[in-house]
Amino acid sequence: MGGRQVTEWQGKHVTVAGLGVSGIPAAKVLHGLGARVTVVNDGDDERARAQAAELEALGITMRLGDGATLPEGTELIVTAPGWKPDKPLFTAAERAGVPVWGDVELAWRLRGRDGREAAPWLAVTGTNGKTTTVQMLAAILKAAGLRTAAVGNIGVSLLDAVTGEERYDVLAVELSSYQLHWAPSVRAHSAAVLNLAPDHLDWHGSMEAYARDKGRIYEGNRVACVYNVADKATEDLVREADVEEGCRAVGFTLGTPGPSQLGVVDGILVDRAFVADRHKNAQELAEVGDVDPPAPHNIANALAAAALARAFGVPATAVRDGLRAFRPDAHRIAHVADVDGVAYVDDSKATNTHAAQASLAAYESVVWIAGGLAKGATFDELVAGAAKRLRGAVLIGADRALIREALARHAPEVPVVDLDRTDTGAMLQAVQEARRLARPGDTVLLAPACASMDMFANYNKRGDAFAQAVRELGA
């Protein structure tokens, strides 16, 4: 670590709010810089105590079960992104004039240590599709021969990327609305907002505040602000952003692109933004068939990733090669099996209505398995838009009645099976009922539009249960 930064942090009183995937690396990095670190945490369970013991062994002060009180002498708070802005700790910090950063802000401030040039950030946010787009982007950058990593909200610590030994040419960075809220100084090379739909409103307080935090990703962009032509709210965020002179607005669309856009023509992904004379010329990038899976929303993800890569100067051949090499994570519109002429698809990651809408739009005739924890969502718009595609619906989970009522209002002719059980074994029965409703050529689609925690530990476990149930059908 560079001498200037060590001197800057030596003896500084820093409070880290929250343990976990961001708090523990932040505490360790700050301690290594010479800061006097105190970690506060609301929980005091067995896991938290084990994590605390590891940090205490390094000389870090721990306060478990008290995340509300500002430790005396605190000069800076570094918070886990999920901590809500209205927590008493932050109210106390504001009164005391103590700044609050997230781990992303800390990573941004620590980049470029030892006098070496910092790797630029290509950043992605949006209500849905962030992880897939960032992974696609990293695959494209690697295909271009660049040293890169997919980092941020994706599970790989940004702090590790900027303070570790490995050097990168560029970073593909996934940023959540929580992380952006606590990252006022981040200035990306180029950034994309994929889409905007109501989500996490209990945390942000309103749709306006949620969109405002998402829009922070465009602040200070140098080369391109990438937006979704089909989602005007994303373009509005570009218009409101304060960017560097010469930074361009670049749209992506599933239709024929205009100048300064990427889009699709006759099954080909094309670029009319990063070409000479974009009013007359277009550059072929890849075929729709190079995208896995080639569902409409995933084509949009690929176009956004391509736009960011092209903004960084990546050649068209690397876009094609990167998309061909990319494989999506599990539980993201993943084909499980074909049984008796019916396709079974796991999109357990569709935990909100916006994601489920995109998933349903990818198939012509669907038996839909849905339900779980609604998180305050309503389902009328989702059901009305998908009604013509529905062969039937099988509902599970605590808030399934909300979906059943929306189906009754907007798709009364669609047969519905309402499973009055929330144990994990309900998934096997749901798949069996879906098989009964399906006809050859249909798709049985798990796209719950709800969170999983009423029945499963997480969406991965829910998807695993679905896949296991499908395998039992074919046994």
Could you walk me through the main structural features you see in this protein, from its secondary elements to its overall organization?
The protein has 18 helices and 20 strands. By secondary structure, it is α/β, with parallel strands linked by helices. Strands 7-8-6-9-10-11-12-13-14 form a nine-stranded mixed β-sheet, sandwiched between helices. The chain is globular, with a radius of gyration of 23 Å.
Annotate the secondary structure layout.
Layout: H1 3-9, E1 13-17, H2 20-32, E2 36-41, H3 46-56, E3 61-64, E4 76-79, H4 88-96, E5 100-102, H5 103-110, E6 121-125, H6 130-143, E7 150-152, H7 158-163, E8 171-174, H8 177-181, E9 190-193, H9 201-204, H10 207-215, E10 224-228, H11 232-240, E11 248-252, E12 261-265, E13 268-271, E14 283-287, H12 296-311, H13 316-325, E15 334-339, E16 342-346, H14 353-360, E17 366-370, H15 380-386, E18 390-395, H16 400-410, E19 416-418, H17 426-437, E20 443-446, H18 459-474
Parallel strand pairs: 1-2, 1-4, 2-3, 4-5, 6-8, 6-9, 7-8, 9-10, 10-11, 11-12, 16-20, 17-18, 17-20, 18-19
Antiparallel strand pairs: 12-13, 13-14, 15-16
Helix pairs in contact: 6-12, 6-13, 10-11, 14-15, 17-18
Shape call: globular
Could you tell me the mean pLDDT? 93
The profile of the biggest β sheet is: 9 strands, mixed
User: Can you tell me the residue ranges where pLDDT is under 50 for at least 5 consecutive residues?
Assistant: none
* Cα radius of gyration in angstroms: 23 Å
User: Structural class of the secondary structure composition?
Assistant: alpha/beta
**What is the CA-CA span between the terminal residues?**
57 Å
By DSSP, the count of extended strands is: 20
- Beta-strand fraction estimate: 15-25%
Summarize the amount of helix as a percent range. 25-40%
Total helical segments:
18
Give the strand line-up of the largest sheet: 7-8-6-9-10-11-12-13-14
